[in-house]
Specification:
With 307 residues, the chain is α/β, with parallel strands linked by helices. The chain has 12 helices and 10 strands. Helix 4 crosses helix 12. The longest helix has 21 residues.
């Protein structure tokens, strides 16, 4: 028993592969890189990012699900993996059965941002404008079946408006389209939209988190603007293959919490507009379960199919 304890306390004893299920340079890398660097520094063993993009994050998630549960493969993935459960009909893995939740890494409020030409300063004005221009309003997104797309559909249903969904190939192109006035509004992670809001190129209509963001305290939430229960966040979490030792899960969770004791990490997350992660594995598992249910309803109601 003592021998087993010693071994676990020394985990990791070699490099750990961190699968990121999106191409390099995307939103996931924004949190994955600094966290991996910090864990490397703390443990003296490399936490190496392995970017495996494609199929809405499901290719990377499958690779993690099929990896040996030896503590040396970790999945760092965003909310998309919860959406994929319902949106993709032929997943080769089962999120709950094949992957063990460890903890959250970051939670970003999302924000509804409108083009400057849209004559609305707040959510109720935007809804009125959309209803007055029934069917002529466009909501841009980072692509079919993404949370941004689903947020458009969720907003249509909650506000009783008919906005046409316009998919782009990623967040960057969708934001460019909004800046150019090609679409009327998009849902975006607050971190990515912050610069454009601050320099007056886009209008922040509402944040979609449960409470206001400390980064933009004067932007109201969608809930307080009259859309009861409208809550959408961009979150990132860690999983390991199911069957990984409980001690490794505990140690990884503890390491992430310790990483956030570093003032530099706290400062970076605050600058990104994110809440830091670190919730307990069981709490994270329950949260993911609720997210799967929430997005599953939106996918079914709007009859969305991703492939």
């Amino acid at each position: 028993q003592a021998q087993a304890q010693v071994q676990v306390q020394e985990w990791p004893q070699k490099p750990v592969k961190v699968i990121v299920p999106f191409p390099p340079g995307g939103g996931t890398d924004t949190v994955a890189r600094p966290l991996a660097a910090k864990l490397t520094q703390m443990t003296g063993h490399q936490f190496v990012l392995d970017n495996r993009g494609g199929a809405g994050g499901t290719i990377g998630a499958l690779a993690a699900a099929k990896s040996a549960p030896d503590g040396y493969t970790v999945l760092l993935a965003p909310v998309h993996v919860a959406v994929a459960v319902t949106a993709y009909k032929n997943l080769q893995y089962d999120l709950e059965r094949d992957l063990q939740p460890v903890t959250t890494v970051a939670v970003f409020p999302d924000v509804l941002v409108a083009a400057m030409r849209v004559p609305a300063k707040n959510l109720q004005e935007l809804i009125s404008f959309a209803k007055a221009n029934d069917g002529k309003i466009n909501c841009g997104s980072a692509g079919n079946g993404t949370t941004r797309h689903l947020s458009c559909e969720m907003f249509n249903a909650a506000a009783g408006v008919k906005a046409t969904h316009v998919p782009y190939k990623g967040t960057g192109p969708a934001t460019t389209a909004l800046l150019g006035g090609e679409v009327d509004y998009i849902f975006e992670a607050l971190g990515s939209a912050a610069g454009h809001i601050r320099n007056g190129k886009l209008k922040a209509i509402a944040v979609t988190s449960a409470k206001r963001s400390p980064a933009f305290p004067d932007v109201p939430t969608a809930i307080e603007s009259g859309l009861a229960g409208f809550e959408v966040t961009s979150w990132y979490g860690l999983w390991v293959p199911r069957g990984t030792s409980a001690d490794v899960v505990k140690r990884l969770h503890a390491l992430v919490n310790k990483a956030f004791e570093d003032p530099e990490m706290r400062e970076l997350w605050a600058r990104l507009g994110a809440e830091q992660g670190g919730v307990a594995p069981d709490k994270f598992g329950e949260f993911v379960g609720r997210e799967v249910q929430k997005w599953g309803k939106v996918v079914r109601d709007a009859n969305i199919k991703a492939d």
